[in-house]
Design brief:
The protein has eleven helices and ten strands. It has about 375 residues and is an alpha/beta fold. The chain binds zinc ion (2 copies).
């Protein structure tokens, strides 16, 4: 069953009128990037608009200062639309979370007066800290998804992939401890923490050839010592470990740990490994939501632009954990930017370009129609 066509027409008419406001929000967030858990102004911009649009808004929801929950509607299935708004260091909104936020808020504003007629309860949930930390896992643990029937979000990407996958990921903080000494007069009394870390880094680089498909490990050295004439007593790195499922992540964890410990043994140092933030699970796409979203994109006449290299499960999101808990869809929507890809300066520019704005409005239309399909037929969520 699809949504009642008069409601669909009404929501599309509303989106046409809301366009400038939705695009204005996207650009305002883009121009004022804020890092994970610090998205004070971005969250306020979203919450203000939703409040003005008739939602009951709880700011600082679920114990997170930069989360919010905007609720409307009191009958029918309960849909959560996720709004991410965190930026990246150095490259700003190079993951296009300004489009994610504006698309979620636009969907809320478009649907709000139609919710009772459609039979839908809607929460637009402001979800901080996707790039690091895992704000959605904080929200899950605080109960934000209890009693929720489905969760929906879009993500801008170079190409379209309406039922995109995603890898499990965990972040490690790695610290190698050595012993300081005079680098010239008494090097034999020192133990070089940087050498320990570099040996581990090199061992991981050699390990890569022998990993399973989609086991990935990438890291940066964040501290390498304090002065060239002091044998470094401390060196530090950040590593991300990714895999297609939890079994492969367990395997990768053991092998990367062994590589880092090997570097420490070889240099007489010691290594300390700590997980940072939450583990992100892989995305579990709901086939019914994916089909409804694809139909919605057909209805609005959106041309599907697939990656010529085929769909890729690369990347990770804390929406993975949401999708393991409730039926979910994380649709990748093209800003047609290739060869500019997420986390590049060039991609940030694409996310406020005319094409980026057009994708944003398509996202509002497609999510709104998908929400109406869910209201008309909650049975579409039945997992296959
Ligand atoms: Zn992102
Ligand atoms: Zn990103």
């Amino acid at each position: 069953m699809t949504a009642d066509s008069s409601i669909s027409t009404d929501v599309l008419d509303r989106i046409a009128g809301l366009g400038p406001e939705i695009i204005g929000l996207s650009h305002a967030i883009h121009d004022d990037p804020e890092l994970a858990y610090q998205e004070v102004r971005s969250a306020a911009r979203c919450a203000d608009l939703l409040e003005a649009g008739g939602f009951t808004v709880e700011r600082g929801a679920y114990g997170l200062a930069t989360a919010f929950a905007a609720r409307a509607g009191d009958n029918g299935p309960h849909l959560v639309v996720c709004a991410e708004y965190d930026a990246l260091p150095v490259v700003g909104h190079a993951c296009g979370h300004n489009i994610i936020a504006a698309a979620a808020i636009g969907t809320g504003l478009a649907l709000q007066p139609l919710l009772d007629r459609a039979g839908l309860r809607l929460t637009v949930l402001g979800t901080p800290a996707e790039e690091v930390g895992g704000g959605k896992v904080d929200l899950i643990l605080a109960g934000a998804f209890e009693g929720v029937d489905a969760a929906l979000m879009i993500h801008p990407t170079p190409y379209d992939d309406y039922d995109s996958a995603g890898l499990a990921i965990e972040e490690w903080s790695v610290v190698v401890h050595g012993k300081a000494s005079h680098a010239s007069s008494a090097p034999e009394l020192g133990r070089n923490a940087l050498d320990g870390l570099v040996a581990g880094y090199s061992a991981i680089a050699m390990l890569r050839q022998h990993l399973r498909p989609w086991q990935q490990v990438h890291g940066i050295i964040t501290h390498g010592g304090d002065a060239a004439n002091i044998v470094p007593e401390r060196a530090a790195a950040t590593y991300y470990l990714r895999a297609i499922d939890m079994a492969d992540l367990d395997d990768l964890r053991d092998r990367v740990r062994a590589a880092l410990e090997g570097g420490a043994v070889a240099t007489g140092t010691s290594v300390e490994i700590e997980r940072v933030g939450h583990l992100y699970e892989p995305i579990r796409t709901n086939p019914g939501l994916a089909a409804a979203f694809t139909r919605a994109c057909d209805v609005i006449g959106r041309a599907f632009t697939a990656d010529p290299a085929g769909p890729s499960p690369g990347g990770s999101t804390d929406f993975g954990n949401v999708s393991q808990l409730v039926p979910g869809l994380h649709a990748s929507m093209a800003v047609n930017s290739f060869p500019a890809v997420n986390h590049q300066h060039e991609f940030a520019a694409h996310c406020v370009s005319p094409q980026g704005d057009a994708t944003l409005l398509d996202a509002v239309r497609a999510m709104s129609l998908t929400a109406l399909s869910l209201a008309a037929d909650p049975g579409l969520l039945t997992r296959e």
